[in-house]
Amino acid sequence: MSSWGYVFLAYGIVWSTLLLYLFSLKRRFRRAQREVAQLSSAEELQKHAQK
Amino acid sequence: MPSGLALQLTARDLSKAYGLRWALRDLNLDLVPGECVALLGPNGAGKTTLLKLLAGLIYPTRGDIRLNGVQLSRSSTELRSTIGFLTPGEHLYENLTVRENLDFFTALYNKNHSLVAIARALEEVELTNWSQEYVSALSSGMKFRLSIAKWQLLEVGLLLLDEPYGVLDGSGINLLEAFLKSQCEKGNVVVIASHHIARVLQLCTRALILHLGKLTFDEPRRQPWDSFERAFADFLPHGGP
Amino acid sequence: MKLLRQTYLLLRKDLVLELRRRESLLTMFFFGTLLLFVFHFAFDLVPEKVTEMTPALLWLAFLFTGTLGLTQLFEAERTNHCLDALLLSPMDRGALFLAKTCFNIILMVAVEIVVVPLFWILFNLRSWEAVPLLLGVAFLGTIGFCVLGTLLSGVTLKARARELLLPLVLFPLMVPVILATIRCMEAILRNGNMGDALPWLRLLLGFDVIFVTVGILIFDWTIDV
Amino acid sequence: MQATVPKNRKGYLGALALILVIVGLYWGLIHAPPDAYQGNAQRIMYLHIPSILTAYLSFFLVFVGSCLYLWKREKRDDILAHSAAEIGVLFTALTIVEGSIWGKPTWGVWWTWDARLTLTAILLLIFVGYLMLRSLIEEESRAASAAAILGIIGFLDIPLIHMSVYWWRTLHQPPSILRPDKAPWDNIHPAMLTALAINFVAFILLYFYLLSLRFRLGEMTEEIKTRRMDRGR
Fold first, then answer.
1. Banded pLDDT at C127 (limits 50, 70, 90)
2. Does A39 reside within a domain?
3. Residue-wise burial string across C96-123, b where 16 or more C-beta atoms lie within 10 A, e elsewhere
């Protein structure tokens, strides 16, 4: 493999893993946001029910 | 702080959470010297959690506990010499003899008792001829009597007991109640968590009821105690002392 | 001073328990000698290479034997919640740390004192005069190992799969001690005295001092919840 | 617990990081001249040096977070330590991968016990142990304080490991000219230096962007937990 091959191999692995990690973070982030929204709406319901 | 000194305990909005569950919520408590408090309530109400918090074995998620104004925290090693925690069959080294256990704990609590004092303590709990036996050879009733002798020697200002009645026979119960009475007369504070409502009510000067981590009842004892019966009725189907 | 008095008390209690049941000492001793035989068969050493490999073999045997001791360290406190009994008492947590460290050091030194001469006999080495100095260096290495080992055995006390987690967490942190001890031992075997391995000895001493102090200060949070 | 980077500022940080990464790539791959000895393989250095430094930075943050948590017992510091450790392990693993790929053209082997690679491998082991410890203790506060202790011990041990590995290395392997870990700034072409600088800043920005995201995620899971607890009363 020519020296450029190694360079692209290294850059490829690094940036693909970082992107993968970023996407997994975003996915977990969105799931958490949805849960927070769900919980706060449930709390609103509870408040209305009690009023 | 010599242990015989009167011990004032105050707990302010004490709360403890384990993971997702509140074991104890916003509990306020004041204990004065000479009080004997019965801690009642169904299983899982948070009795043991409260005892462990008062003993300083675990730390509150919110709120704090003060002994004579000094906050009970991780670094208060001096304060711990005045706190005792008595659970049947626990806090004793199985592979040490009865005598070695007593010697070890009295030395650890910096109590330099004479040999006579230790022998007398053993005599009071009728364990004299067992003193060279390993604790593992003792029955659970005898281990409990050894714990009584141990805490009697350690002279603590606050004594916490968790379900003491479970293992005792007739003579053991008299021994325990005599011991607790003498502790209260000496001005120490005693807190007993138990299910034997009948026995513990006769002994205590005040009763607390814990339900789902909340303190729902806290009154000094008086003879026609209808408020207690009402409060306690909704827990146990048969209710009443 | 209160700390030392309590350390002595706890250490005496541990030694009495150990001499009475002799669990850790015997298992560690036989495990140490077992490792010698295993290494002997595994490496099938030609006599000249043996002296060169001796430090590594010895120190690896001590390391694994020590790990056995570490996993048993708080066993006595596990029955009847005796650890709670100690935490309840006016015991300085640093004293518990020192007592447990000294206890494991005593066990490991006992094993080392027997295993090293045995190693000399089994591999019929000539350099008997190097043994005392070798044991001295091994002692310093043992201190470093036990200090960090006790600290981490406290940290992993409440973890699941505690026995597996302890070596996994402990060994990467032991790299300085492993390298330093083996280099010092090689220097002793090669030319009878420390000679050019002096910086390694200083590193070893530094490691011991740093983590003894860190241990005493930090053990409070390790053992309390 | 709202004292975190508000949504839009994180977006800017992300965008800025992205721009710098692209510029860094341009400089690293195209603009900077190839190295006299190693040819183009030397361009991996623009990845390798920044990611090692980012890994060290994250282990320092784990140390800071652990100390703060033990001192003040605030959940926020524990989340910081946990997030920094998670990202730190990721960067350390990447560093090792780059190092071995860089080693192949220069020394002909995927792995050599070169001082820096060994050190990075040990760091990876320590902080994989950190994450394992955290996952193997059920009770929340116990896991946090156990991890904090390990975070502190691990960080304090790094200089000692550093010294012992370097002494061990210089003993066995005489310093060769072709070593990738030769200090990059002694006789280096200015264009390379700027490329390295740009990439370094790009990595730092990217790191803090990821950290703020992970930190915010940690806070939200914590919030969900407390909310679910209160509702469960």
1. confident
2. yes
3. bbbbbbbbbbbbbbebbeebbeebbeeb
Are the CB atoms for B199 and B173 separated by under 8 Å?
yes
* Distance to chain D for A33, nearest Cα, Å: 7
Partners of C13 on chain B (C-beta within 8 Å) are 93, 96, 100, 104
Using CA atoms, how far apart are residues C7 and B215, in angstroms rounded to an integer?
41
Residue D2 banded pLDDT, cuts 50, 70, 90: very low
Q: Give the integer Cα–Cα distance in Å for C5 and C9.
A: 6
In this complex, which of D137, D145, D164 lies closest to C159 when CB atoms are compared? D137
Task: State the Cα–Cα distance between residues C201 and B17, nearest whole angstrom.
Answer: 48
Q: Do C90 and B110 touch (CB under 8 A)?
A: yes
Which residue segment(s) compose the domain that B137 sits in? 96-154
List, for residues C59-110, the tens digit of each pLDDT value: 999 999 999 999 989 988 988 899 999 999 999 899 999 999 999 999 999 9
- Of chain B, the end-to-end C-alpha distance in Å amounts to 39
Would you call C4 an interface residue with chain B, using a CB distance cutoff of 8 Å?
A: no
Whether A31 is covered by a domain: the verdict is yes
Q: Quick check: helix, strand or coil at residue B66?
A: strand
pLDDT, averaged across chain C: 89
Task: For the full predicted model, state whether its pTM sits above 0.90.
Answer: no
pLDDT of residue A30: 92
Range of the domain at A24: 19-51
Whether residue B135 is found in the same domain as residue B200: no
Among the partner residues D47, D210, D220, nearest to A33 by beta-carbon distance: D220
Report yes or no on B134 lying in a domain: yes
Please check whether residue C1 touches B, CB under 8 A: no
Number of domains in chain B: 2
B238 found inside a domain: no
Q: Which residue on chain B is closest to C87 by alpha carbon?
A: B57
Q: Are residues B194 and B148 in the same domain?
A: no
Q: Read off the amino acid at residue C132.
A: P
Q: Is residue B88 part of a domain?
A: no
User: For residue B1, is pLDDT > 90?
Assistant: no
- What is the Cα–Cα distance from B24 to D163, expressed in whole angstroms? 50
Query: Does B164 share its domain with B150?
Result: no
Given a cut of 90, whether residue D107 has pLDDT beyond it is no
CA distance C100 to chain B (A): 16
Angle between helices D45-72 and D190-231 (to 10 degrees): 30
At residue D152, what is the residue type?
A: I
Any B CB within 8 A of D231 CB: no
Domain count, chain A: 1
Residue at A10 is within a domain: no
Q: Identify the band that residue C151 occupies on the pLDDT scale cut at 50, 70 and 90.
A: very high
Paired tokens of D95: 């560093």
Same domain, B27 and B126: no
Beta-carbon count within 10 A of B229 CB: 12
Evaluate whether residue B1 is within a structural domain.
no
Beta-carbon separation of B57 and C90 below 8 A: no
Which of the other chains make 3 or more beta carbon contacts under 8 angstroms with chain C?
B, D
Q: Which residue, among D141, D145, D225, would best test binding to B if mutated, counting the most B CBs under 10 Å from its CB?
A: D141
Neighbours, chain D (3 or more CB pairs < 8 A): A, B, C
Give the whole-angstrom CA distance, residue B241 versus residue B228. Answer: 9
Tell me if D98 and A42 make a contact (CB, 8 A cut-off): no
C-alpha dihedral over D93, D96, D98, D102, to 10 degrees? -170
Residue showing tokens 């990075």: D120
pLDDT value at B232 more than 80? no
Asked if residue B160 and residue B76 are part of one domain, the reply reads: yes
Nearest in space to C69 (alpha carbons), one of C36, C40, C112, C13: C112
Mean pLDDT is lowest, of A31-40, B118-127, C186-195, D60-69, for C186-195
